[in-house]
Amino acid sequence: MTTSWNYVVGYRRISARIILRSCRSPFKPSLKYHSIIRNASESCNATMEYKLIGPEHYKQVLEHLRKSFFADEPLNKAAGLCQNGCSNPELEDHCLEALQDRMSLMAVDGKAAQEGKCKIAGVVLNGILRSGDTAKALEKLEESCDADFRKIFELLHRHNLKNNLFEHFNVDAMFDVRILSVDSGYRGQGIANELVRQSLAVAKKNGFRLLKADATGIFSQKIFRSHGFEVFAEQPYDKYTDADGKIILPVEAPHIKLQLLYKRICNEDKDREQAQ
Ligand code: ACO
After folding, report:
1. CA-CA distance, 38 to 16, in Å (whole number)?
2. What whole-number distance in Å separates Cα of residue 51 and Cα of residue 45?
3. Could you read off the pLDDT of 3-21 as tens digits, one per residue?
């Protein structure tokens, strides 16, 4: 089925063509649009194509993440998780798990695509987080032999368990914006902003009422807040210490804290969207 979809960017309405193949029930993500091509008149991102990530893209997505996220994300960097371009098996598994929920998106350089190449400029990996998943993940973490990986995910999991969004909002599942990553050669062009904006659309289409994100740096925090996410809880990195008072993850400035952010999708948003 081919349809056209109107949606809002900032205060402007633009049209995009979306090729929809099917749409099933909430929490079983099924929105299968091959590509969302932004209107060519959009300035910053004019040559980017935004697509849902399918299994055929996993290899390239992991290559992108090794280059752009594994070494660069503030917590990974503080823990010294891996060198630029290198792999980390447990982080790759974490990424693949999110990809399997089939709600992740990538920005592909349209110019390179015209030359027959697929160049990934950025990705957002979105997964379904169900009640009980984080406690299980923390238990599983005890089996990990990678001390650096453990440090990072202990902070994230414990922070989420302490600040329980499931209880607070009385939901069983939520849309988890897990990984946001843009290739260093494409940063500062609004790609992360657009990936988050389109993730909101995917969450809505799949019937989610609550989104969350663990934003680890000031830029990702700014991006989420600009899309209406609110801070639920935060953890300053210099206060996250071991028994001897030593900072566990010495995150470099300007990043100073972890933020757990959430966004509720209310019926009003849906009604407004349907009216447009
Ligand atoms: N310096 C100053 N401002 C910045 C910077 C920077 N280095 N990076 C982004 N911003 C600001 C922009 O000015 C923009 O603000 P505006 O909307 O007011 O103009 C906003 O942040 C969004 O900018 P984008 O261009 O959309 O962001 P970009 O495409 O460059 O991607 C990202 C930002 C994802 C943080 C990128 O730098 C990156 O991949 N970093 C490494 C991985 C990482 O830290 N990811 C986030 C971790 S949290 C998580 O994954 C859930």
Report:
1. 6
2. 14
3. 333 332 222 222 333 322 2
Between β-strands 173-182 and 120-130, what pairing exists: parallel, antiparallel or unpaired?
Answer: antiparallel
Residue with tokens 């969450």: 203
24 CA from centroid of ligand 1 (Å): 33
User: For residue 52, what is the enclosing H or E element?
Assistant: strand 48-52
Q: What are the structure tokens assigned to 179, written together? A: 């990984």
CB within 8 Å of 12: residues ≥ 6 apart: none
Task: Supply 238's token pair.
Answer: 């210099």
Q: CA 266, CA 254: separation in Å to the nearest integer?
A: 33
pLDDT of residue 115: 86
The model's pTM is: 0.85
Residue 34 makes CB contacts below 8 A (sequence gap 6+) with: 19, 21, 51, 52
Residues enclosing ligand 1, CB less than 6 A?
A: 68-69, 72-74, 122, 177, 179-182, 187-193, 213-217, 219-220, 222-223, 226
Give the nearest ligand 1 atom to 44 CA. 25
171 CA to centre of ligand 1 in angstroms: 30
CA 274 to ligand 1 center in whole angstroms: 30
